[in-house]
Structures are given as C-alpha cells and as structure tokens.
Write a structure and sequence with these properties.
Largest sheet: 6 strands, mixed
Oligomer: single chain
Number of domains: 1
CATH class: Alpha Beta
Number of strands: 6
Helix content: 25-40%
Strand order of the largest sheet: 2-1-6-5-4-3
Length: 133
Amino acid sequence: MEALVLEFLSAENARDWAKWTSFLANDVTYIVVGSGNVVRGKNNYVTHMQTVYAELPDWRFVIETIATGADAVIVEFLGRGHFTGVHEGRTCTAVPLELSAVCVFRLRDNKIASVREYFDRVSYERQLASSVR
C-alpha cells in the first residue's frame, strides 16, 4: 500500500497525469476537510487537480511523515510554490506559498478509493492576503 501511494505522489509531483490517474478507483472521492469541497469520480478528480496545479505551476511537496494502517496510508507533506490566480475576488501573481498538509489515502483493490486532505487553511489565507498591497 505504501509503495502505491508513494508512486502516486511521485507522479503528482511530476505532473504525470496519465500515471497518476492509473492509481485511482473509478469512484474515488477527494475531500478537503473543513472546506465543503468534495470531488467524486476519477475524471472529476483529475480535472480538479489539473486546475489546482494550473494556479500553482511550480508547486512541489516533500513527504515529512508516512504511516500505514490496515487499509489506509497517512502522509504528512510540506509544499512550496507560487500561486497565480484569483482568490476571493483578488488577482494574485506568483505569491509565495508554503503549506503543511496531511492526507489519508484509503485503498480498495490496489486502487486509491478516497483521499481526505487536511491543510492549514489559516496559513494559506494569511499568505495570500499578504500579497494585497
């Protein structure tokens, strides 16, 4: 399980969307906890992540901690990059971001069936707000 998740994350950092997609169950669910953001289905998840990375073209993350349970892999990340896009009605250009996150990956039949992401939304908002002059 851990090896599968590590390959999946490596494909994400490389933006190898074909390989990344191959790890997903057709009915995968992606939830950003606390945001109300729920994405259902492989195609919707791929589209969502490609949109996210269009605003964070240089985003890379490193794994800080990884733990494996009976049917889940939990990964703590530290990500860095620059955000370019519209956030809460403001246009941001190359705003530096550094964020910590934890994802819980649940697997079924050697595919990722669900991802729950927890991240530091307060820090995210603070960093983007600092770009307003």
